[in-house]
Amino acid sequence: MTLDLRAMTEGDLPLLVDWFRHPHVSQWWKSTPDLAQTRAKYLPRLRGEQPTRMITVLEDGAPVGLAQWYRWDDYAEDRDNYRIGRGELGIDYLIGDPPTCYRGLGTQLVDRLLGLLRSRFPAGTLVSVTPEADNTPSRRVLEKNGFTLVDVFQSQHLPGRSPEGPSAVYRRPL
Fold first, then answer.
1. How many domains does the chain have?
2. Closest CA to 171 of 156, 152, 158
3. What is the strand order of the sheet 3-7 is part of?
4. Rounded to 5, what percent of the chain is helix, strand, coil?
5. Quick one: pLDDT at residue 2?
6. Is residue 36 a part of any domain in this protein?
7. Backbone angle region of 48, left / alpha / beta, with phi > 0 → left and psi within -120 to 50 → alpha
8. What is the pTM of this model?
């Protein structure tokens, strides 16, 4: 099994619609958008108009998930809400294709994503991730990749966002 990361393209957006509808994803991403909503949210990122970098995850050449990375400073309200320090990076990820779940791909995905970030940022740059505290699979993936739990708390509900449960804040240096 070979896991690769590539820049997401507009042609990948229908896959996101499908992945977001699966219960193992919608439970945590709190979103089941249609294609028009997905295009509206993600095309600005794909065009470089927004600072989040989108990645398609491939297993043996077939798309199975997504990843994204960003500078928390570009989202200061979120950074402050999750008690993240200035200068830190953030990542999000999912394995969307149900048959590929629970086979260790998430752990490999985060490892690959950290490798990508190491090639772009200085050693020691902090990466913070904020899964919901009840998202045990995501928390295990982070722990397997050397992240340390630094806090668990109920974040503030930001306008325009779906309510979420308590957040578990994980951090590690590159």
1. 1
2. 152
3. 3-7, 53-59, 62-71, 89-95, 126-129, 167-173, 148-153
4. 40, 25, 35
5. 86
6. yes
7. left
8. 0.91
The answer to whether position 11 is within a domain reads yes
Tell me whether residue 168 is in a domain.
no
Roughly what angle, to the nearest 10 degrees, separates helices 105-118 and 136-144?
50
pLDDT tens digits, one per residue of 75-124:
999 999 999 999 999 999 999 987 777 788 899 999 999 999 999 999 99
151 inside domain: no
Q: What is the pLDDT of residue 75?
A: 95
Domain containing residue 16: 3-124
pLDDT in tens, 29-45: 777 679 999 999 999 99
CATH of the domain at 92: 3.40.630.30
Q: Find all residues with CB under 8 Å of 46, minimum gap 6, and list them.
A: 8, 9, 10, 54
Q: Using an 8 Å Cβ cutoff, are 41 and 33 in contact?
A: yes
Q: In this predicted structure, what is the pLDDT of residue 80?
A: 94
